[in-house]
TrEMBL record, chains A, B:
Alphabetical GO biological process terms: regulation of DNA-templated transcription
Residue ranges occupied by any HTH tetR-type domain in the UniProt entry: 23-83
Keywords for the protein's UniProt record, in alphabetical order: DNA-binding
UniProt name for this protein: TetR/AcrR family transcriptional regulator
Example of a GO MF term: DNA binding
DNA-binding region: 46-65
Domain of life: Bacteria
Amino acid sequence: MEMSTHNILDQMLSEAKLSKKDTAKQQRILHAAIALFAEKGFANTSTSEIAKNSGVAEGTIFRHYGTKENLLIAVIVPFLKQSLPMMAKEVFEEINPSKHARFEDFIRALFLNRMRFFRENKDIFRVVVKEFVYREELRTELLTHVNKEIVGYLNQALDYSKGKGELPDRPNGYLLKLIFPYIFSQFVIRFVLSAKEPDVPDEVEADAIVKFVVNGIRSC
Amino acid sequence: MEMSTHNILDQMLSEAKLSKKDTAKQQRILHAAIALFAEKGFANTSTSEIAKNSGVAEGTIFRHYGTKENLLIAVIVPFLKQSLPMMAKEVFEEINPSKHARFEDFIRALFLNRMRFFRENKDIFRVVVKEFVYREELRTELLTHVNKEIVGYLNQALDYSKGKGELPDRPNGYLLKLIFPYIFSQFVIRFVLSAKEPDVPDEVEADAIVKFVVNGIRSC
DNA sequence: TTAAAATATGAGTAATCACTCACTTTTTTA
DNA sequence: TAAAAAAGTGAGTGATTACTCATATTTTAA
C-alpha cells in the first residue's frame, strides 16, 4: 500500500546495477507480472495469480522479490534504466549541429524513436503509466531524474533552434510544458488507452503531430 | 472486480434520473468515497475505510449501494450527467454564428469553461481519470455518449471555421484527434498529476495553449 | 563425490476484504 | 397515534490477500 523508502527511484536505479543474472523462473515471474499488471493494474493483481500464470510456486516469488511491491519495482526499473539514457542519447545525437537539423527534424526523430521504444515495451509502458497515475512520489522522483539526465540536452536543442529563429524567445521550461504533454499524450492514447494501434505507418502519424507541434510552438 | 452489465453508462445515465433524494448519511458516504477514491484509487480503498471516514456503519453503505462497484458508479454518473450536456451547451452557444466567433475564441471559451468545471469537481475528475485508465468498457461507452451528444456540435463548429478559412480542409475526426488530446492532457496534468495548481490566472494559461492549438492545427 | 549454498516448494497464517443479516431506530403514512 | 416502511447498525462470514517457513530439490564448489 505504501512505499517505505523516501527515494525509491534513486535507490532502485543504483541497486539494480549489481543484481546477478535472473534465473529462468525469475524471468517467467517477471513476464507474467508485466502482463498482469499491464492488463489489470498492480492493485488488482494477486501474487497467487502471478504464480499460477508463471507456473511457479507462490513462495518462489517472495524468495526472489520479498514483497509484491519489490516485484513491481523490478518490473519498472530496467525499463527506466533503458528509457532515460536512450532518450538522452537520442536528443544529443539529433541536436548535433553538424547535422544542421531543423527543429522539425529534431521533434520528428524524437517522436519516432520513442514511438518505437514504447511499442517494443508496450506492456511495461502501460504498467508505468498506470502506476504513475497513482503514486505521486514516483512521479516527482522520475521528474528529478529526467531533469538530471535529459533536460540539459533538451535545453541545448531548444537554444540551438532559438538561435536559428525556429522557436520564440521564451523560457525553455515554458516551451517544454507546451510540447511535451502533447507528444506524451499521443503515446498514452496509442499504447495505453486504445484497444488497437492504427494501421497507418508511424511516419504518417508522426507527420501530422510534428507539424502541429512545430507550427503550434512557433508563435507562442 | 468485473462489471456485470454490458452497457453500464447507458444504464447508469438513465437510471440515475429516477433516484430519490439522498439521505444525509448517503451524502457523507459519497463525500468520503470521492475523497478516498481520488487520493488512493478505487482498488486501494476499502469499504470499512469509507465507513469510518464518513462516520457511518459499514452496513449502511451496502444498504444504499449494494456493492462497492455501485458506489463508484454513484460517484461517477452525476459528474458525467453534468459534464457532457454542459459541454454540448457550451459548444453550441459558442459556435452561434451571430457571435461571429473566431476559431480561437471558440477554443478559448471551451478551454476556460472545462477548466472551471473540472476545478470545481476536481476530486471526481481525478476519480474518473484514474478509473478510466483501468477500465476499457467505461472508455468505449463514454466515447459512444460523447459521439452521440457532442460530436455533432463540434462538427458544426469545425465546419463553420473551415468555411471561414481558419481550419484546413481535413476530416473533422482527424482534427479532433489532434486537438482534443492536447487540451485534455493539460487538464490531467493540472488536476490529476500536479501536486498543486500554478498561481497564474486561467486566462494567461489559456492564452498559451489556445495559441498553440490554433496555430498548430492551421497547417496540418 | 560430497558438502555447502542457492533455489524452489506449498501448506499454513494472520489480516483484511466485500458483503450479509437479524435487529434497532427513525421517518413516513394513514 | 399506531402501523408500516425506510434507514441505520455492527457483529459475523467465507473468501482472498500478501507473506512465512520448514522442508525438498537443484546447482555450485572443493
